[in-house]
Queue: 4 jobs
Job 1
Amino acid sequence: MQITKENLTVVIVTIKSEKVIENCLNSIDPKVKKIIIENSSNENFIQKLKSKYKNIECYITGKNLGMGTGNNIGIKKSTTRYVMILNPDTILKNDTLDQIFKISKMLDFAILSPISDKTKYPNFKMDKENINSENDLFEVDQVDGYSMVLDKLKFNEKFFDENIFMYLENDDLCLRMKKRGEKIYILKNASISHLGAKAVDEKFNSELEFSRNWHWSWSKFYYRKKHYGLSLAIIKGFPSFINSCFKCLIYFILRDRFKLKIYFCRAAGFYNSLINKKSWYRPRFD
């Protein structure tokens, strides 16, 4: 079945994204349905978007549920077969959707993504030996979560793992689909620009850095344990945990509070995942 403007919905999860979201929305064909999931209680932000843009639905979660859970809410509220997951700090090129519509005529896929316009930072992972530079379309193992077109029929309503608050939720989704024999593709003649770590207002950078370090450690252990077993997760993660504890001691002595908290968050994220505690840490945006 071909993707069209009528059977595609774009889902965008936002939080403190006022400075970037409009560039993203302006790059999307106005005839394509859009669903915004705002991970806060910011009613003013939602009302502003609804008054400015057509063909848009906006929902407020009331609290920060994370990217995976927010995306799941948007996917389940969509009524179309195809859903395009976008981060608010992305911008589609003028012909990106047209190229996706065109290639979908002859393609069976679970996940399809345009390619990043930053060649130094590819938005996919694969065996390099399998890359054929002459093909506009090539199969990959994983794509980054900031841009993913999903065929909902391939997922049996099992989308992002809601245990993961932040990081590796897209890796987990892709790996689960690959294990089922489904196809994941990158389309080279359709590109997307990703600002990178700009989805949240920069004034919250410190809080975001603490959250990133905590959740990166938590999610890595959880992901490895889920797919490769507890023993490997411990073997792979324990050296970094010990190093983080040592760095905490060093920066405590040096009275560097920022770096002390960074490494404390790394150690704490690993420890909480190790003892099977939920991914509870949340950045403060007040």
Note: The chain has eight helices and eleven strands.
Job 2
Amino acid sequence: MQDLKPGKASLQERVSNYVQLMKPGIMVLLVLEAVTAMIVAARRDTNLFSLTYLAIAGILASGGSGAINQYLERDKDILMRRTDWRPVATHQIPPKSALTFGVVSIGLALIIAEIAFNYVATLMILLGALSYIFLYTLFLKARTKWNIVIGGVAGVFPALTGWAAVTGSIGIPAIFIGFLVFLWTPPHFWGLSMKFREDYIKTGYPMLPVVKTEKQVINWIVLASIPLFVFSFLPAVIPSLGSFGLIYYALAAVVTIPFIAVDIKMIRQPTRDNAFRAFLISLPYMFILFGAMIAAVII
């Protein structure tokens, strides 16, 4: 891919590059997770200004972490079809600029959280950023096939942030919401990494599909999805996890059924294409669950 020097890029292209630097796909999910936890905590008393501040802090923290991730992985990203277009890998954004952007963004997120909320919410944002950058990106990813499993703890902190922003503490429903993301991450990402197995071989990352056979990876995807399905419905029998009502369980069932169908198909036909279908099916899963939670507590 031909490099594009920053000085030759139009304003629109520069803005687009910085948006991509922030990993918008991940960012949107994590911000929605935080917003969901806030709404579940405050219910119909949710304050629009608080939601706005939380969303801004979440965008900055998640986007800043994504920028630092791309700075750290720029030499690996250029080797992979899935990531060789990223703005730092292609020098559309200079590495130092990406690093500065990431650090400043996270710093601004912490300032906003401290001013608008409390020190607990601020700490949760900080721990989320540090766990993604240091625990996952710098330590786990290049060292163990279970990187995405352990590193998935970073996905818990947005829910803790949203809950703490309202209550000043960490509540059990927030842990439930965050743990859903933790359980969802491995079956979601393993399907994607199986699709791009050759890319990960080039980078030297010991992702599960690199060190295991296709059939073994599919078995792990299916096994990892079972606790996710069970946990999604657990508040029905353990009310302390959250009171979501019929709307949530109905939509949870709707989004779980096709996921189970794909799992069954993978067991019968353990192919890379079917694993990628599981990834595609998993894409809307958390968005629908979060939307269902929000609807259940405000309607």
Note: Residues 11-298 form a domain with the Farnesyl Diphosphate Synthase fold (CATH 1.10.600).
Job 3
Amino acid sequence: MMIQEYDVEYRRSKPLQQCVAEDDRPREKAKQFGFKQCSDRDLLALIIGSGSRGENVLELCQRILNDHNGKFYNLARNSIRDLVRKYRGIGEVKAIEILAALELARRYQLERFDDDFQITTSKDAYDLLWAKMGSLNHEEIWTIMLSRSKRVLGVERISTGGTSLAIADIKMVMKPAIERLADSIILAHNHPSDSVRPSMQDNDLTKKVAAACRTMDMALIDHIIVCRGGLYYSYNDEGTL
């Protein structure tokens, strides 16, 4: 079905207040008890607003959540076209609104990593990287530049690749660290497959960057492989740096 047809279907569907039992209406629940008392399904329903023929908005939202294992970071990996194609009742406008809300949530999460943020553990680095890379469906390579006291001087994307590989130019890895006069760096990349096992290419990249850092009187203190669900691989923690 084309996007235009979905939009017509959306306009014909009943609004949220007319298709859901009064006790289950998310808007009333939010007004009376606050957003914290709303389920993920309720909050998504507030964004989508209405379902389609034969499926009210709460049923649609529950199906969307089930399809993504109840995780918004899985939902965020969809494109506008993906959502329109997969779900009757989701037109282009609604798909844009869903993904915009998820992007706002990502940016909100990043706000706690201000210029004074200090990284003392691999989990600190993962949390910062997850906010930037967690919903990607392709590989990217990033670096975190740190001061002598391990405070973040900057976080920069180095390269973007496909679903299983991103190529790093060692000169490009080092360039932002040199420009910021960093004392140390953390190298990072994501695995869209969510496999925490490093590849031979990952190990080779780690060795090359470590050697380049030594040449520049800088330290590579970790290389982190970022996966979903709180999973990651830290070369430093594993003693493989």
Note: Confidence is low (pLDDT under 50) at residues 1-14.
Job 4
Amino acid sequence: MNSATYIMALMMGLTGSLHCVGMCGPIIWIMPFQRFTGLRKALALGIYHLSRISVYAAMAVVLHSFRSVFNPQVQQYVSIALGALLLLAGLLYFFPVGKLVPVSLPWAGFVKNRLSALVGSTRLSAIALSGLLNGMLPCGLVYMALSATISLSTATDAILFVYTFGAGTVPVLTGISLLRSRMPILQRSSFRKLTPVIVMCFGCLFLLRGLNLGIPYLSPKVQMQHGKVQHSCCHKK
């Protein structure tokens, strides 16, 4: 996996973390991080986010195991379709056509109930479990990152991609847990307004990657030659 892929994963996390504030911010705010001090607070935050991101990494491994089902051309079609759906989702925010029914995963109710019973505990084991449960909640941003792992060569690359993406979400989420009482702007409604813009930006990115235009970093040229995948990502030899 080249450096451009790591940069894309990190930028997805950094920019997408504004969406995380709107969706996961309320959970972060009621976590008992303010009751810790010094190194113990840093440890609690680290355990929480590591647990959360590790769930994403496990999902990436499972999804990547189906990679052989998709040849490069099918992956391009998937990328184009996903990009179009993201653009449509962003546009619908500005031109509502009716109330959309949110997607609910079968285990979402159980996860929310267990999470509500743990969020007030200061035990590090409870904080770790809270992070794991948070990682299991439905999140469109995470699903975007996971879909990008299908095109990676190995499961290790998929894991590194997701951990890099997850690291990008940590600064903003850590900031709101530490500074929320001092920064009134860190409100759910403020950041939710940015969500459609972020979704549309990633929609454009997925469209570009799927169109196979040969644009360095953004839309690498991928084709099959003699049964092998040939791609031109960053430069010409």
Note: Residues 224-230 have pLDDT under 50 and may be disordered.
